[in-house]
Amino acid sequence: MISVVLIASEDLAGLAAQLAMLVPAAVDGLVKEVVLVGDGHPGVEALAEDSGARLVTASGEVATRLTAGVAVARGDWILTLRADPVLREGWREPVEKHLAGGAGAAAVLTAPGPFFDKLFPRLHGVLARRLDWPASGGDEKAVARALRAKRLGY
Length: 154
Prior knowledge:
Elements: E1 2-7, H1 12-27, E2 31-38, H2 42-51, E3 54-57, H3 62-72, E4 77-82, H4 92-101, E5 107-111, H5 115-119, E6 122-129, H6 140-147, E7 150-153
Parallel strand pairs: 1-2, 1-4, 2-3, 5-7
Antiparallel strand pairs: 4-6, 5-6
Helix pairs in contact: 1-2
């Protein structure tokens, strides 16, 4: 159902933690595939191989890398993520509710953190139908604006 497009970084511990948070959702069928977009760092390649993620090599700005990942994604929905911030327990419930009753609308997945993050929640990623993904691409904030994404907090 969901293809997760995960932008890799040299933070291998963060990437591994992010992948670990996706495992239960993959086992249950919510996450269909993980597309790990890396820039050729050997640790990322090994992590993709070990986790079963599909590796796409792309360099440049986040917008370029997201576009490369979305281009090969096969799920009906795309969820973009980065190594940081790592998803927390409870992320699935609002996503599943949104998929069931969101009428196809795009959403931004956010989670509160320390004091200032309560006022300005941390962006985890954008959830959007693959067919609605803007051809012009952009980073997560640009895509969220273009799709008029609503906020999904957890």
